[in-house]
TrEMBL record:
The name this protein goes by in its record: LacI family transcriptional regulator
Entries under Pfam families matching the protein: LacI, Peripla_BP_3
Gene Ontology MF term list: DNA-binding transcription factor activity; transcription cis-regulatory region binding
Source species: Maritalea mobilis
Record has DNA-binding as a keyword: yes
Domain HTH lacI-type: 5-59
Alphabetic keyword roster: DNA-binding, Transcription, Transcription regulation
Length: 343
């Protein structure tokens, strides 16, 4: 029976140092991609398997990355747009050729998610944390910084100390979409937004206000609604706003699920898209190409931020400074309608 292959076996086979082989197997960005691929190919051919329990005993590493998500009630059957499962898949793909694996922790509230983070940090249940859904003043972020625990957020915060993050450029999204609608002649533009406790929601409303001001249009608070971004929310807000004496001629929705609800309301009330009002949205899935009619969307495929989240996590774990690991994505505007009202 052949002896079990080790890092030294791989080093001998590749002609590389044991240090280089070890770094490659641990997903270090210090190893060039072609070198890492060569090492992984040889490891696979030799049948090498890392003894993670032994590594944890020696180094204290679990080789687990925790993703903490706050989800709505399991009894809520409403579609809310992109799910966090897509983020997990994207990050897992980046970690595929490393010893690290993603473990998802689901919480029913912000407070429960904070408790989970405290337990993970205290018991060293993971080597790093990925945290989507950030708040303006996020106690979870402050806690992980105080504990010097590696983390990357999917979203911005107002933390005084810089931290690693990936996010959509939410202010730019709003300016792109609202400027487009204003250029098409719309002056009454509704904004259906997420809960204002979330950082991205606040950024979007601030950008909405500023874009209106720059165009010489007055901000009307009755045209802004905040809530859980589901089709039910979109339809409910449309029903309410369409009854105004001066109803909106455009609905800017924070995701496609909400936009679908607005379009459902159009059907019930006998509205025609492009005649009575128009709808545009932002999202990560691009489902709106299948709506009837298809609507204009600011689209960012979820694969892009999820890949960078995984890459940033690996770099953090290899000692790179958090302030160097910050990325904002500007989505593509996909125009599927003129978005002008027909006279």
């Amino acid at each position: 029976m052949s002896p079990r292959p080790t890092i030294k076996t791989i080093a001998k086979e590749t002609g590389l140092s044991t240090a280089t082989v070890s770094k490659a197997l641990n997903g270090s960005p210090q190893v060039r991609p072609d070198t890492r691929d060569k090492i992984l190919d040889v490891a696979k051919k030799l049948g090498y398997e890392m003894n993670l329990s032994g590594v944890q005993l020696r180094t204290g590493k679990t080789h687990q990355i925790a993703m903490i998500t706050v989800i709505s009630s399991p009894h809520d059957d409403e579609w809310g747009g992109v799910g966090y499962a897509q983020l997990v898949y994207g990050v897992s793909d980046v970690l595929h050729d490393t010893p690290y694996r993603v473990v998802q922790y689901q919480a029913s509230s912000y407070e429960e998610s904070f408790d989970i983070i405290k337990r993970i940090v205290a018991n060293r249940k993971a080597d790093g944390i990925i945290l989507p859904g950030t708040r303006v003043k996020d106690k979870r972020v402050e806690f992980m910084q105080a504990q010097d625990f590696p983390f990357v957020t999917y979203g911005l915060t107002e933390a005084e100390v810089p931290h690693a993050y990936v996010d959509t450029h939410n202010q730019r999204i709003v300016s792109i979409c609202v400027e487009r609608l204003i250029a098409k002649g719309h002056k009454r533009i509704a904004m259906l937004n997420a809960d204002m406790v979330l950082m991205y929601s606040r950024d979007r409303e601030n950008a909405y206000r500023q874009t209106l001001q720059d165009a010489g249009l007055k901000f009307d608070p009755s045209l802004v609604a905040n809530g859980e971004l589901t089709p039910a929310f979109g339809r409910e807000q449309f029903f309410e706003m369409s009854m105004f004496d001066d109803p909106p001629t455009a609905y800017f929705c924070a995701n496609e699920a909400t936009a679908m609800g607005v379009l459902s309301g159009f059907h019930v009330r006998g509205y025609e898209h492009g005649r009575d009002a128009v709808v545009i949205a932002t999202d990560d899935l691009n489902v709106s190409q299948y709506f009837s009619p298809p609507i204009t969307t600011c689209y960012l495929p979820i694969s892009k931020p999820s890949q960078v989240l995984g890459e940033f996590m690996l770099k953090l774990l290899n000692g790179e400074a958090p302030e160097k690991l910050q990325k904002l994505f500007v989505p593509d505007l996909i125009e599927r309608s003129s978005d002008e009202l027909r006279k």
